[in-house]
Amino acid sequence: QVRLVESGGGLVQPGGSLRLSCAASGFTFSTYAMSWVRQAPGKGLEWVSSILTSEINKDYADSVKGRFTIARDNAENTLYLQMNSLKSEDTAVYYCVRGYRGSYWPRGQGTQVTVSS
Predict the structure, then answer these.
(1) Alpha-helical segments (H) within the chain
(2) What is d(CA 82, CA 104) in angstroms, rounded to the nearest whole number?
(3) Distance between CA 115 and CA 26 in Å, rounded?
(4) How is the chain split among helix, strand and coil, in percent rounded to 5?
(5) CA dihedral over 12, 97, 24, 69, signed as positive or negative
(6) Nearest one of 44, 35, 107 to 64, comparing CA atoms
(7) pLDDT attached to residue 16
(8) Low-confidence residues in the chain, pLDDT < 50
(9) How many CB atoms lie within 10 A of CB 111?
(10) What is the tens place of the pLDDT at every residue in 40-67?
(11) Cβ–Cβ under 8 Å, residues 78 and 24
(12) How many CA atoms, within 13 angstroms, populate the side-chain half-sphere of residue 37?
């Protein structure tokens, strides 16, 4: 069965950085596009970024473009999200999703990112 386990969240000051990881199992990771989505308090799911099966094709929401970088290691079945220049509006639970932009399931249990001074 598909299993996605996110990690790396935490509390960070505005302007800081975090690196999220997502360990995937139960499917052939290298053959699927993957995405990150987030859910801020009281709001719905918001797409953040997607990556195709190789490192070549990546896509970002306008709100994170230039600050976040998505990456994947197909040998380690792991998806990453490097988040720099974090803002308070980036505070959310971040989820790893199997699929490209517009996919919201299957996803992991999420990791909390809080940006606050």
Answers:
(1) none
(2) 20
(3) 32
(4) 5, 50, 45
(5) negative
(6) 35
(7) 98
(8) none
(9) 22
(10) 999 999 999 999 998 889 999 999 999 9
(11) yes
(12) 20
